[in-house]
Amino acid sequence: MFAILQYSFIQNAFLAGTCVAAVAAIAGYFMIVRGLTFAGHALPNIGFAGAAGAVLLGIDPVIGMYVFTIGAGISIGLLGKEVNERDTTIGIIMTFALGLGILFLSLYFGYAERVYSILFGQILGISQLDVLITGISSLLTFGIFLTLFRPLLFSSFEPEVAEARGVPVYLLAMIFLILIAITVSLSVQVVGALLVFTLLVGPAATASRIVQRPLWAIVIAILLGVSYTWLGIFFAANSNWPVSFYIATLSFGIYLPVRLLSPLWIGRRARRIAIARQHSAMSPGSVDDQQQSNAMPATGREHDSAR
Amino acid sequence: MLELLQQDFVQNAFMVGTIVAIVTSVMGYFVVLRAQAFAGEALADIGFAGATGAAVLGISSLLGMVFLTLLAALGMGALGERIRGRDVEIGMVLSFALGLGVLFLSIYAQFGTNASEGVGILFGSILSVTRSDVLITLFCGIGTLLVLGFLFRPLLFASVDPEVAQTRGVPVRLLSIVFLMLLGITTAETVLVVGVLLVLALLIAPAATAIHLARRPLTSITLAVALGLLFTWGGLILAFVGTGRHLPVSFYITTLAALSYFISIPLGRLRTPRHYRDLPHPTREHIAVKSR
Lengths: 307, 292
Hints:
CATH topology of the domain at 2-203 in chain B: ABC transporter involved in vitamin B12 uptake, BtuC
Helix content of chain A: over 70%
Number of helices of chain A: 16
Distance between the termini of chain B: 55 Å
Number of helices of chain B: 12
CATH class of the domain at 2-203 in chain B: Mainly Alpha
Shape of chain B: globular
CATH class of the largest domain in chain A: Mainly Alpha
Largest interface: A-B, 54 and 52 residues
CATH superfamily of the largest domain in chain A: ABC transporter involved in vitamin B12 uptake, BtuC
CATH superfamily of the domain at 2-203 in chain B: ABC transporter involved in vitamin B12 uptake, BtuC
CATH architecture of the domain at 2-203 in chain B: Orthogonal Bundle
Strand content of chain B: under 5%
Oligomer: heterodimer
Number of strands of chain A: 0
Strand content of chain A: under 5%
CATH architecture of the largest domain in chain A: Orthogonal Bundle
Radius of gyration of chain A: 21 Å
Shape of chain A: globular
Order of helices and strands of chain A: HHHHHHHHHHHHHHHH
Helix content of chain B: over 70%
């Protein structure tokens, strides 16, 4: 059963899967905070159209994917801020891109096989070179996320306050969507366009239900994402069923009980925080502290305890 | 062109396209109003699991889709509150359903049948619709429209202003569940025409365009139906008439839909915003708004 680990294609899969899962988890956390989950579903499908176009032109599908996802990311960033309107527009951009995708496919004669690998993932067929490229791009993306961590967190939770404090909110939103586009293109190789959502939002959704501090939530999300991927690859290598099915099932199977049970601890903690807020509001001279904790809940509390 | 119309599969395609375009446009108006585009997308993807599951079991894919989407709609409705702001939960269910769909598809493919069935479900295969599919679609469509007509006023009220509707005694929660079930049936039918991945094009594009261009609910809905028919018929005719290689119907439909939506955005901005008009108010003193 563990003998399969000696095959080089399984090792490649594990390496690429680990990199992608870690980056996707951190990106997914910010997507949930910023209410961009629908974009997390739409971007991979848009990337699929790009890949189909690239196949038609005879170039590497990954390049087409990058072009389409980054382009769509920028246009979603340029759209209005109203969530309702944004969802409609994202939906229509997505279907338009998919329509283009089916057009490219019908023009291309070598029909089903390559389409399937883009839609459903091809991690067990990944090459050494792919692993290298995936590893480097994941490291870069991860590094940018870490560098931008605090301003990004600030502008995601409290965009107005962040803007007033001089954080370049708009620029950050743009950079963020481009990072998402890169992450999506990376993840498509592992789970396929249809199921990028499971790696992107699944671990982060579960983690943010377990703990509330952003940093802890991200750490747990990365751990969850990496373990889903490992288990998924391990099960798939030992059976006939696809990797993406295992990852999706694990992701949902862990999320469901956490989601259903989370009111038990989240409600209690929220009450405790509310009581603490009331106390600090009653004592004079703590107005500054309160503003801090309003702006950034987690760091605000750190600030309090440091005094 | 006219000779083509005498062929069975062309007639079926036009009939199904017409029924689906009318029903989705009316439903789409409420979907846009209630900001449930993501729920519509999710129901379509759940339909994918239903269709592939039905293929494995060897039963009609339409039945499989209707069954699973109805089940999912009940579940979503039972989640309570409104679907607005429940994107993460919807997304998780959606990705699980897609995972199941991928599994069924791979099992189905292992039986030796070719994979084009899967592509047909994902991207639509309106030209392979059978007469019995047309009949099922017709009955479901008439049923959906009847229920919608019956619920029209309370549903509109609950969609525009749920809090006020609740205090006036409108059963908002029940309406939400019924609406989601209707949406489930509608998406299952739409999958026949444009496929799982492109349902949103027929579901929200006509209605979103119409809402940009017209303000009164009934005018918007009429306009949405007209647009929906235009996209579907336009897509079918272009696909048949198109010279050279025959390009897929779904491509034409989505392109027409996206074009009209993006044209309607600047057109909608040209009109005077609503709050500049003098509106009499029954309980307050009449104040003419002179902001310019």
